Hints:
The chain is an alpha/beta fold and 483 residues long. The protein folds into two domains: 349 residues, TIM Barrel (Alpha-Beta Barrel), CATH 3.20.20; 119 residues, no CATH class. It has 21 helices and 18 strands. The strands form five sheets. It has a six-stranded parallel sheet with strand order 6-5-4-9-8-7. Strands 15-14-13-17-18 form a five-stranded mixed sheet. Strands 1-2-3 form a three-stranded antiparallel sheet. A hairpin with a 2-residue loop joins strand 1 and strand 2. It starts with a strand and ends with a strand. The model has no long low-confidence stretch (mean pLDDT 96). Guanine (GUN) binds next to helix 5.
Amino acid sequence: MTISFEVIHKDIMGRCGRLKVGERTVRTPALLPVINPHLQIITPREMQDMGVEAVITNAYIFNMSRTYRDAALRDGLHSVLDFDGVIMTDSGSFQLSVYGDVEISNLETLAFQKAIGSDIIVPLDIPTPPGADRSTAEEDLAVTMERIREACMKFRDSSPAAPVQGGIFPDLREAAAREVRETGAVFCPIGAVVPLMESYRYRELVQVVLAAKKGLSPASCVHLFGAGHPSMFALAVAMGCDLFDSAAYALYAKEGRYLTPHGSLKIDELAELPCACGICRTHTAEEIRKSEERERLLALHNLQVTLAEIARIRQAVQDGTLWELVDERCRSHPRLLDGYRELLRHTPMLESSDRVSKRRFFYRGAETCSRTEVLRYHQMITRIGVGRRVLITFDQRVAEGFDTILYFKPPFGPYPPGLGETFPIGQSEVPEWDEEMVRSGCAGIRRLMEENPGSGFVIWCGERWGGLVTRELPSAEVWCEPV
Length: 483
Ligand code: GUN
Ligand code: ZN
């Protein structure tokens, strides 16, 4: 199947795009629900009616199944699953790595996936567990790369997926991604991240995903293998992940867990159902608990919540408000906050992909000062032309005797009055100023001063900020009192 990917909107490193697989199209970011043919609590047909454009199933399960193997070979996956959208098959490497011996070769699984009519086929990569040492990760990676190259050579017409492995070592991930890029693969999953997510190691997740993204082509479609909890989708999209596959909707349902975009709750402990989906609006928590269909009702709710979060993310990317959604979601769990803070340590990388203008910029606390828009503004500040005597005024009062008068808006810094209506100055909403944001604004002033060593700068900041500004900008003349 020929696979192509087109990016339509961008925000941070996130994208809204179109993945074309043969005649079929998937709007991204997208969630591919995991289908286990033996346990279809929601059928693929029902999913299609809920707006699902792609699903993923496991070639290994089909190959081992007396019921499904022959039917799939004879009639094809689309007919067996009764689904018209894109069907991706996983090779089952992940199951094999968890449950033991490999009983099938790379070329055998690829040929089988092709024979059952899969739209996206995956070679037998080796997911290196996070506990593995460097030499194990290197050896696994060498085998994975060999299998990817074999897949690309023998199955070129099928555009096989090329998974990025490399364990928890960012340099191996980046090198793996560069090798994947050289194969020309368009569809590039990032593998072996499930154990990181299961143990809430979001900081390391961010490190390995960004390392992989560094090596991959920006034009490739990136699938985050096994990411299923909606609370982390916004973070993953901000890093440039386009696809998720999830069994979480079903696994959580089986355990009586009710997904929300902030985390999961136990249905046994719920008195209310805080969700707008059809199931929650036509049942009480008590009714779901006692229903014979409890698992299915929960799975339906879980899937709808997950799909709604994907829709919310797609809208945020189009509006340029993804940072605010990431900020909101990552405050649902302290370990997600760790992941968010790690992301903010990579702002220079994020900034180079971020869009120029956005609908708005909301200040949401200290983390906001590290956002791409602030970094970009500070880089842009050096291009503001100033005369010999420069006044930067915090409350827009002006004085005589200056060649240049600039206003001040934290967390950005100084701006010419003429830029007051343009992004980000004009579209930014900040609460009552706090020290973090004023310090960030002073960093902007510092950039301007460094760029113009021949000019004298007066900062008219008033009493409230005099101490902080003097500490931040010792070489400036600081006016604290009204003059
Ligand atoms: N499912 C979850 N993680 C992985 C992975 O690393 N490789 C493959 N093929 N499937 C997965
Ligand atoms: Zn619901």
